[in-house]
Amino acid sequence: MKKFLCVVLLAAAGAAHASDLYWQPLNTLGPGDRSYAEQTLYDEFGDNPDLWPDWIDPAALYAPTADGDRLLIVRRPVHEPCGQYRFAILSTVTAARTREKLGEFCAGDLDIVKAPDHNLPDLLVTEGYLQDGNGDWQRKDQRLRWDKGQWWLIIKAAD
After folding, report:
1. Are the CB atoms for 71 and 65 separated by under 8 Å?
2. Is 48 left (phi over 0), alpha (psi -120 to 50) or beta?
3. Model confidence pLDDT, tens digit, residues 13-57
4. One-character DSSP codes across the chain
5. Pairing state of beta strands 59-64 and 150-153?
6. Would you list the domain boundaries of the chain?
7. What pairing do the DSSP bridges indicate for beta strands 109-113 and 59-64?
8. Closest residue by Cα to residue 143 from 101, 132, 118
9. Do the beta carbons of residue 65 and residue 119 sit within 8 Å?
10. How far from the centroid of its chain's Cα atoms is residue 112's Cα?
11. What pLDDT, in 10s, does the model give residues 133-157?
12. What is the distance between the alpha carbons of residues 80 and 84, in angstroms, rounded to a whole number?
């Protein structure tokens, strides 16, 4: 019994990372969430998912918040120098039963990290590329935190 409880606790402790969470096809989301997820692709691919190219293969996951609610994160491959995927972050469900777009990030991977004293988790955006002042693309991993209505770059204090 003790061994079983240890396994359960270890599994729960690791559940905060996107790599451990389940990326699922958009057609497995509930009707409201599916619609919001598809809307994140309208600007690039149009508003008829039946006409979208097969290669985009979008997926979504639910990221837990500190109060037990869930963000909706949509992932799709991109053909851009900024990274392999574009991640659209959608808010928890509002009182009006909607989800607001909180931002988009381009990267190779995204992890969910519990943010102390914050309801929304931090996003660890890795294997992404940003243009420097000369226009050259440089790899830049970032830890981002939602606070006061926007994403802030979290910079680790010097040791």
Report:
1. yes
2. beta
3. 444 455 568 999 999 998 899 999 999 999 999 999 999 998 899
4. -HHHHHHHHHHHHHTTSTTTS--EEGGGS-HHHHHHHHHTTHHHH-S-GGGS-GGG--EEEEEE-TTS-EEEEEEEEEEETTEEEEEEEEPPPPTTS---EEEEEEESEEEEEPPTT-SSPEEEEES-EEE-TTS-EEE--EEEEEETTEEEE--PPP-
5. unpaired
6. 2-153
7. unpaired
8. 118
9. yes
10. 8
11. 999 999 999 999 999 999 999 986 5
12. 8
Query: What is the C-alpha separation between 48 and 82, in angstroms, rounded?
Result: 26
Q: CA dist 17 to 22, 42, 125, Å?
A: 10, 28, 12
The answer to whether the predicted template modeling score (pTM) of the entire model surpasses 0.85 is no
Angle at 126 between CA 19 and CA 89, to 5 degrees: 70
User: Which phi-psi region, left, alpha or beta, contains residue 158 (left: φ > 0; alpha: ψ -120 to 50)?
Assistant: beta
- Which of 26, 14, 30 lies closest to 112 in space, CA to CA? 14
Beta carbons within 10 angstroms of residue 71's beta carbon: 21
Do residues 102 and 119 make contact, with C-beta atoms less than 8 angstroms apart? Answer: no
